[in-house]
UniProtKB/TrEMBL annotation:
GO terms for biological process: anaerobic respiration. It comes from Desulfobulbus oralis. It catalyses: a quinone + succinate = fumarate + a quinol. The lineage of its organism: Bacteria, Pseudomonadati, Thermodesulfobacteriota, Desulfobulbia, Desulfobulbales. It is found in: Cell membrane. Coiled coil: none annotated. Its EC number is 1.3.5.1. This is succinate dehydrogenase. Residues 36-441 form the FAD-dependent oxidoreductase 2 FAD-binding domain.
Length: 641
């Protein structure tokens, strides 16, 4: 596989301008003659649809939900980063770039991360113009708060609803173009294959989730904005519909998949409370601004939090990381929570939990101030757990959250398939081995509003314009393949061999992934996973039960197709984790740690992006490597002490 990142020459701060200047342009009259498919309508997809349609392109946007307003982007609570430096506390574009590179443990491209930091200020201006109700100071200026992995206040927020408010801004901009006839929405559709004509992406096959019918759509280019694959673990903070299918279909068509083992574990989630739980709920990282994390000093202490005196509490993050305290990055906070719980200091009935305590902040600022910052988060926690966080500490524990791995893309956001782009969490490009908090919203909107509109024109300028259609034989071949796969999924039910539900197999896969390829990994466990996953997959195809029929509303069939992809993709994740013998960011190999149990990188052997190429169902995927060159920062052992 040839990996040409297309990074412009020249100084870091001038690369994006150089890229834009050198990119080919399309005049406004001709833009109307190009059709673009966008799969996904969250922040990355909606912003891309709005921006591209505003330029004149004809956009077809596909949404898995009944409305783009239900995209998982709404679940982002804490905020969005930008280096406006309103606080005058020393922030700058370069500092945001450096914090992001360092937070990702030096496993991301310098050029992409700098561009992200560079355009972030434009995002804030754009969203304010759309009416996004960011929090403001008394004098009317936009407010900022701190977030993990930074010593400055650069996170813009709308209470604990930042993702929802930003999505409503992007949705409004997109719906303006729907009304203008430049964007055509296809709700309740799920992409099941990407269609290649002469080696280039020219359309998709999708399932109508209401009727069950398979549909074909054509365009001059295809953009995937379908989010991450955290639900491979079954229990995660992701929406239940989040899946890997679109990205995995692109991988099977020849798109390289980069760093699939890089999966972020979020430290502030409501702990698991039962065997048959199907979803975990995120508590925003912003809570760590005012909440103090602690556990009892005495192992096995089952007293209530209120009964444990101050001198018998271990504020372990403050003790171990005095410079950052409770605002260490997510991977560091998560591993430390696991460490104290494994040592017997955990709270909750299961012992898998730590306290997040707001008593000191409430005493300092008053309950009214704290509720103005976090009121909806407090209410959410109380509804789920039946505990008032203003009176008792929250209980939190790490859970699968964001995925840094994704489809490999070059500086233009194009995959290894010409004409196929990936934006937002669907690609790998900006976060390295660990994403800092409040950076997901930043990347999604940067890609959609400010990067893709420039770079896609450079590609389309070389593609003949005119109306597209689905008459090419490649569309029929793709449709036949999807039908055959669906028939295979239904075979065990029709033959009477079905024994277990889709959720049973998904849960079994999740247990293996969490235990063997979760917060920590070792060679023995990863090899065990590579033996167990094929067994679960074989059992699934032989005995899964799927009620209903193909061509009708059938949510069991939808889930079965997604889990079938997870059962294949999980194996790729484990192979990637096994191949990367270093520890970096969220990828913690037990064999590679410092004396203080911190991640120990191996820059001599692993300063690269691992890109996997599909070679067939019966063949091993092929690994290619994109070397990471650091000219503006020096990789060093991360320290937050």
């Amino acid at each position: 596989m040839q990996l040409d990142a297309k990074i412009p020459e020249g100084p870091l701060a001038e690369k994006w301008n150089a890229c834009r200047f050198s990119s080919k342009l399309i005049n406004p009259a001709n833009k109307r003659k190009y059709e673009i498919i966008i799969v996904g309508s969250g922040l990355a997809g909606a912003s891309a649809a709005a921006a591209l349609a505003e330029l004149g392109y004809q956009v077809k946007c596909f949404c898995i939900q009944d409305s783009p307003r239900r995209a998982h982007s709404i679940a982002a609570q804490g905020g969005i980063n930008a280096a406006k430096n309103y606080q005058g506390d020393g922030d700058s574009i370069f500092r945001l770039f450096y914090d992001t590179i360092k937070g990702g443990d030096f496993r991301a491209r310098e050029a992409n991360v700098y561009r992200l930091a560079e355009v972030a200020n434009n995002i804030i201006d754009q969203c304010v113009g759309q009416g996004v109700p960011f929090a403001r100071e008394y004098g009317g200026t936009l407010a900022n708060r701190s977030f993990g992995g930074a010593q400055v206040s650069r996170t813009f927020y709308a209470r604990g609803q930042t993702g929802q408010q930003l999505l409503l801004g992007a949705y409004s901009a997109m719906m303006r173009q729907v009304a203008a006839g430049k964007v055509k929405m296809y709700n309740r559709r799920e992409m099941l294959d990407v269609v290649l004509v002469d080696g280039a992406a020219r359309g998709i096959v999708c399932r109508n989730l209401i009727t069950g019918e398979l549909e074909q759509y054509s365009a001059h280019a295809v953009v995937l904005a379908t989010g991450g694959y955290g639900n491979v673990y079954f229990l995660s903070t992701n929406a239940m519909a989040s899946n890997v299918t679109a990205a995995f279909r692109a991988y099977k068509r020849g798109a390289g998949f980069a760093n699939p083992c890089f999966v972020q574990i979020h430290p502030t989630c409501i702990p698991v409370h039962g065997e048959y739980q199907s979803k975990l709920t995120l508590m925003s990282e912003s809570l760590r601004n005012d909440g103090r994390v602690w556990v009892p000093k005495k192992a096995g202490d089952k007293r209530k939090a209120s009964e444990i005196p101050e001198d018998e509490r271990d504020y372990y993050l403050e003790r171990k990381y005095p410079s950052f305290g409770n605002l260490v990055p997510r991977d560091v906070a998560s591993r430390n929570a696991k460490e104290v719980c494994d040592a017997g200091h955990g709270v909750n009935d299961t012992g898998n939990g730590v306290y997040l305590d707001f008593a000191d902040a409430i005493k300092r600022d008053g309950i009214d101030v704290i509720r103005r910052k976090y009121g909806n988060l407090f209410d959410m926690y109380q509804r789920i757990v039946d505990v008032d966080p203003s009176r008792e500490p929250m209980m939190i524990y790490p859970a699968t959250h964001y995925t840094m791995g994704g489809l490999w893309v070059d500086y233009h956001l194009m995959t290894t398939i010409p004409g196929l782009y990936a934006t937002g969490e669907c690609n790998f490009s900006d976060h390295g081995a660990n994403r800092l908090g409040a950076s997901a919203l930043m990347q999604g909107l940067a890609d959609g509003y400010f990067v893709l509109p420039y770079t896609i024109a450079n590609y389309l300028s070389k593609v003949p314009w005119g109306a597209t259609d689905t008459k090419d034989p490649a569309f029929k071949a793709s449709l036949d393949m999807v039908r055959e796969r669906t028939a295979r999924l239904m075979a065990s039910t029709r033959s009477g061999k079905g024994k277990e539900t889709v959720d049973y197999y998904h849960r079994e896969l999740g247990k293996v992934m969490w235990e063997k390829c979760g917060m920590s990994r070792d060679e023995k466990g990863l090899k065990e996973a590579l033996e167990k996953i094929p067994e679960i997959r074989a059992e699934f195809w032989e005995h899964v039960i799927i009620p209903g029929k193909e061509q009708e509303l059938n949510q069991s069939l939808e889930r079965a197709a997604r889990v079938a992809d997870f059962l294949e993709f999980a194996e790729l994740m484990v192979k990637d984790a096994l191949e990367r013998k270093e520890s970096c960011g969220c990828h913690f190999r037990e064999e590679s740690q410092t004396e203080e149990h911190e991640a120990k990188r191996d820059d001599a052997n692993y300063s690269h992006v691992s890109v996997w190429e599909y070679k067939g169902d019966d063949a091993e995927p092929e690994l290619s490597k994109e070397a990471l060159i650091f000219e503006n920062v020096t990789p060093s052992q991360r320290s937050y002490k």
